[in-house]
Amino acid sequence: MAKTVTAKAHTNIALVKYWGKKDADLMLPQNGSISLTLDHFYTQTSVTFATQLTADEIEFNGQRLTAQKAARISQFLDLVRQQSGQTAYAKVVTENHVPTSAGLASSASGFAALAGAASRAAGLQLDLTDLSRLARRGSGSATRSIFGGFVEWHAGHDDASSYAEVLQDPVDWDIQMIAVVLKATQKPISSTAGMARVVQTSPYYPAWVQTAEADLKRMRQAIAARDLQQVGQIAETNAMRMHALNLSAEPAFNYFTAETLTAIQAVTDLRSQGVNCYYTLDAGPNVKIICAGQDTDVIKTALQQYFEPEQLIVAKPGPGITITEN
Ligand code: DP6
């Protein structure tokens, strides 16, 4: 009997961002990155390898996936088959609790959960470091979603040395994020293609790689010191530098909408009124506000001038991957 394995992985938001690869096959990043795993957004995926299947069958939130998205998952399953010696096709059932393709990094929790479920279902018993390395081959940000709390992905220089590890878990101090979920629009360009264009065409790219090193060092210190102001300030600057790369690419692109700028302005205004809050943005219009739990009510009330209450989702630090065999 083929066994079914289910894995649950949470998404993460980068505080020092990954934005560019130095090896697209091995998915090695240009620089290391640091993130916070969140409790509210996660993916649960079940995988069964079965000899009677004639192709991989991939179901996503109750629907068969488009050929393009299925191809990326099948390629990942090929890698798992190669590593394990498993020859059968797989049935994959995914429930995603992340707004997809809106800059809330659904590929992070998605490929982390897939790596956990597929590797175990194929007969591999990977430790968390090797699981992180495997998840990396699906999507860079998934490397970090194997772990809970604050996580660092070491860029490394080859397949063996590029993996994530915990910086702090559990998170024993008061830091949360409010996701401002904006109207879903078609992404101008995927994160994979966007970062590739930036590496190739932005004249500022070498400066990004250089400053990332300093940001990583300062961020590690700020997390160790449990210093919300420092964490927030470094994250905000780092995010804006990433988006400045996009504006300086050829052709230029950006992920902002008018609502994105409204949310950024609201956070800046709150801060000038003395509320300790900072924003970060990924490859989509949504804004994530870094703040203390004690301030979430004040911030939500202020933002409700512009947004509906259901657009404001409070998330706390979340756990690492869990894998169960049914
Ligand atoms: C802006 O992990 O989605 O969220 O590796 O090509 O799948 P691929 O890209 P992806 O990029 C995430 C970029 C980011 C920053 C980050 O999470 O570090």
TrEMBL record:
Classification via InterPro entries: GHMP_kinase_C_sf (IPR036554), Mev_decarb (IPR005935), Mev_diP_decarb (IPR029765), MVD-like_N (IPR053859), Mvd1_C (IPR041431), Ribosomal_Su5_D2-typ_SF (IPR020568), Ribsml_uS5_D2-typ_fold_subgr (IPR014721)
Diphosphomevalonate decarboxylase-like N-terminal domain: residues covered: 9-164
Top EC class for this record: lyase
Record has Metal-binding as a keyword: no
Record key words, sorted: ATP-binding, Lipid biosynthesis, Lipid metabolism, Lyase, Nucleotide-binding
GO MF term (any one): diphosphomevalonate decarboxylase activity
GO biological process: lipid metabolic process
EC id: 4.1.1.33
UniProt domain Mvd1 C-terminal: residue ranges: 178-311
Domain of life, source organism: Bacteria
Keyword Cell inner membrane carried by entry: no
PANTHER family referenced in this protein's UniProt entry, alphabetically: DIPHOSPHOMEVALONATE DECARBOXYLASE
Stated family: Belongs to the diphosphomevalonate decarboxylase family.
UniProt cross-references to NCBIfam families, sorted A to Z: mevDPdecarb
Annotated protein name in UniProt: diphosphomevalonate decarboxylase
Biological classification of the source: Bacteria, Bacillati, Bacillota, Bacilli, Lactobacillales
Gene: mvaD
